Amino acid sequence: MTPPDAPHNRWSDLDRPPLNVTALRRGLLRPDVLWSELEVVETTGSTNSDLAERARSGSLAEGTVLVAEEQTAGRGRLERSWTAPPRSGLFFSVYLEPGDVPVERWGWVPLLAGVAAATGLAKSAGVDTALKWPNDLLVTVEGEERKAGGILGEFAGDGIVVGLGINVSLRADELPAPTAGSLVLAGAVSTDRETLLRAVLRSLEHWYGEWKAADGDASTSGLQAAYTAGCATLDRTVRAELPGGNSLVGQAVAIDGDGRLVLSTEGGLQQPVSAGDIVHLRGAAGGLT
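Given the sequence above, the corresponding structure tokens read:
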């Protein structure tokens, strides 16, 4: 075992080996696929910030993937920080250029990434992963819903950068909050990060291709139905904390064609929410989440 005061190096935690970039490129980069470039860095502040800067300079090709073994300034929605021990998860961003898809439909891309991550992880890790609108990945740990990942999308250059952070091997004493979880704590059958990353990226390529082929129509592509089926927020009473400090309480009843969460409020009014922080108040899983 490595002494507590020993200097960190890439082999200091043998339960968390570094990613093999050669093997990843061999498995993912081919002429007939979306992914055009894959880079793995030891550490960076934020993979999203790095790709967004390159996109704004015009030096980025669609299908670029940037993976970090460690992020020191990872970002979530609402400028929240995202930190985790080195090599304990998947921290990566991709650059996509939806092209002729109407820009008003691009808001579906982070939701699309959520569907891709959930389906990819279900196949590769054997973990039932649910979606909390708009961008959280949930797993069940000891009977409770826990956040094991998040997604952040931002416009940059001629496209959109989508970042994903997924807790893979975090142990209970490493969790940043009591509401956090990880794949290993949820009973994953595999925590091999290369296997998981390949599965998520292939799933992302599939859903992105279906969505683009339908000109960004979430209904025609099946994306809206897939997100609805996997969304743990629906059929629950929630509080939407809205930009500007206001809040709205109601039952989450639908994901509409624009990717908005529709709440049924007192008096029978149906209110679409396009942005905000969602708190699950009660529902099938019980309790507060």
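Residues 193-213 form the longest helix (21 residues). Try to locate this feature in the token string yourself.
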